[in-house]
């Protein structure tokens, strides 16, 4: 992630940093309600990250679940 690409919700931003540390790629799009995508390069699976999640805690858990499922791919 580039310097200006931080997520505005601290729980989601922390989960994105954990995902990057695990080897997943975080891509910022800025289109509509989607803030960006989390990409597992080896298996080409993606998950969208909401710009304005209804529950930031649940969004962070979803990112952590995706990271955990794809921890052995990277």
Short description:
This protein is of the alpha+beta class and 74 residues long. It has two helices and three strands, in the order H-E-E-E-H. Helix content is 35%, strand content 27%.
Model description:
- The chain is of the alpha+beta class and 74 residues long.
- The chain has two helices and three strands.
- It has helices at 10-21, 56-69, and strands at residues 25-31, 34-40, 45-50.
- It has a three-stranded antiparallel sheet with strand order 1-2-3.
What is the topology?
Layout: H1 10-21, E1 25-31, E2 34-40, E3 45-50, H2 56-69
Antiparallel strand pairs: 1-2, 2-3
Helix pairs in contact: 1-2
Distance between the termini: 17 Å
Report the sheet-strand fraction.
Answer: 25-35%
- What is the count of DSSP helices, taking H or I runs of 4+ residues? 2
- Overall shape: globular
- Strand order, main sheet: write it out: 1-2-3
**From the alpha-carbon coordinates, what is the Rg to the nearest angstrom?**
11 Å
Order of helices and strands: HEEEH
| Number of strand elements | 3
Please estimate the helix content.
25-40%
- Biggest beta sheet attributes: 3 strands, antiparallel
Coarse structural class: alpha+beta
- How confident is the prediction overall: mean pLDDT? 90
């Amino acid at each position: 992630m580039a310097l200006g690409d931080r997520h505005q919700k601290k729980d989601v931003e922390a989960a994105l940093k954990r995902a990057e540390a695990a080897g997943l790629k975080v891509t910022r799009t800025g289109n509509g309600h989607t803030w960006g995508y989390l990409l597992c390069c080896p298996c080409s699976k993606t998950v969208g990250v909401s710009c304005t999640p209804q529950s930031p805690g649940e969004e962070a858990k979803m990112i952590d679940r995706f990271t955990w499922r794809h921890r052995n791919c990277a």
